[in-house]
Amino acid sequence: MKKRSILRFIGLCMAGVMALVSLNGCGGTVSQSGETGSGMASSEGMGNKTDSSGGGTLEPYTINWYMPSSGEPADIDKINAKATEMLKDLNITLNLNFIDWGSYEQKMQNSIASNEKVDLMWTSSWLANVYDYTRQGAFLDISDLAPKYAPDMAATLKGEFWDGTVLNGGHYAVPVNKEKSAQKGWLFNKKMIDEYGLDVSKVKSAEDITPLLEKIKAADPTLTPVEMTSGNSIPAQQWPIVNNYCVLLPNDDAYTLYIDNPEWQSLVKLMRQWYQAGYIKQDAVTNTDYTAEEKAGRIFMVETTLKPGKAEEYSGSIGVDFVQVPYTPTYISTADMFGSMNAIPASCENPERVLMFMNRLYSDKALVNLLVYGIEGTHYTKVSDNIIDFAAGTDDGAKSGYNPGDNWMVGDQFLDYLLKSEDPEKWDKFKAFNDEGVAVRDFGFVFDASAVKNELAACENVRAAYENAIQFGAVDPDTAIPEYRNKLMEAGVQKVIDETNRQYAEFKSSK
After folding, report:
1. What does the domain layout of the chain look like in residue ranges?
2. Disulfide-capable partner of 9 in 4, 56, 423, 508 (CB 3.0 to 4.6 Å)?
3. Which of 274, 304, 283 is closest to 188 using CA atoms?
């Protein structure tokens, strides 16, 4: 975990908040029990597929599932066909749709608002915002349906993941079973480390990276080594961000305006230096996709959320070796519990059937690995029972026809095969990593923006005009920050902060 540094949160966590405010509803009739008006198919006049929940025979049903990706894989039709074959006992046809990262947010907003047939969609606390979709009534509460139609899923997630992802008293999205804890850090290009003789083991802060960037730029002036987008930025430290404008400060148990924080101001001044030195792309404010540069090996560093094996997983998805370096302790935040989920829209024609499919994602190892790695012998080869390698001649999967890098978006990640390049003890280390996490101070707090939606809409317009330009170093922060602050105040940000602290006080008193 869609985990969240100050700048990562700023750019991605709430990128869709205001757009969702305008959603007009999602259609579909949902009873108080949570079942749609169509319900389960009756046994009369239907196909001969047996309903595994004991409800009779099943009519044919197509599931449209949407996930973000770097692009649609060439062999997506082969994967859908193979998955459909594996799901024939459920009479389900799978239609898996990969939408590029830059378009996913808008695509799903439009699809949900227009009642397009979306049966399942990936969502999170940082993209396709699960909190706001839920508050707008876009997602279905599956609390009662899940135990009946997805018992393996419910059993797998029982405990922290299931209990810790309740919104508005219900379960509106299902977490991927993966790491619960998080740790902020960087991924560094291993080839560049070796080629330029760099020591990343001593990197503890963004300031420590500057000499490394200087050396790379001097050796190859054509490189802009820092990947800087709204989703991958350089943080000062780990702060909980609730609604884009408020931050829970380390030594003060209250939310305040983040741009008033001296550490943030120092950070953006450093980013200004990097921008002027050519370490950050001159079009970083509008550039949302670095995939080509990553795969070409022309990116030195990416800020991200770490977990055991993150570098190997990332390397496998793009075909370039990276190493990981942490800069925060291991922690557990509310946002990370909601960091990667899948939800059934309220307009879904048959949520029971979708849940039956989802159940397989937490119990069927063959199906999970098909969706993650593709077809054995075509996209990968078996090295041993649980170890695989990319097919020969595919450049670490880049040319195999299917390598979406969606491991952390599909069901139970502990069912995934391990790549030959990965640590064979990866899943044991995942479990230890989860046990090490310490909950952040405001763990469990979810902000309800409904009382200040107009102010947030106005603040979002201001944010769009100033924030990325400041945090990417494209403008002088000494001039831009005071202007940004004044505009936010005029837009009503103080009311947003006051409402956040009011809710936080109630949350604390109720614990």
Report:
1. 6-180+337-370
2. 4
3. 304
The β-bridge partners of 185 are 304, 326
How far apart CA 345 and CA 340 sit, in angstroms, is 16
Report, as an integer, the average pLDDT of 279-306.
88
Q: Which residue blocks in 144-196 are alpha helix, DSSP H?
A: 145-149, 151-157, 160-163, 190-196
pLDDT at 323: 96
Separation between Cα atoms, residue 119 and residue 36, nearest integer Å: 12
Question: What is this structure's pTM?
Answer: 0.72
Fold of 6-180+337-370: D-Maltodextrin-Binding Protein; domain 2 (3.40.190)
Residue 182 is predicted with a pLDDT of 85
- Class of residue 293 by CB neighbours under 10 A (exposed 0-12, middle 13-18, buried 19+): middle
Query: For the chain, first and last CA: distance in Å?
Result: 25
- Count Cα neighbours of 37 within 13 Å in the Cβ-side half-sphere: 4
DSSP state of 408: G
State the residue for tokens 């810790």: 164
Q: What are phi and psi of 370, to 5 degrees?
A: -60, -45
Checking if the pLDDT of 197 tops 90, the result is yes
- Residue 54, SS3 per DSSP: coil
Please write the tens of the pLDDT for every residue from 32-57. Answer: 233 333 333 332 233 445 555 445 68
- Closest C-alpha among 160, 170, 134, 500 to residue 337: 160
Please report, rounded to a whole number, the percentage of residues in the chain having pLDDT higher than 90. Answer: 59
In whole angstroms, give the CA distance from residue 257 to residue 242: 11
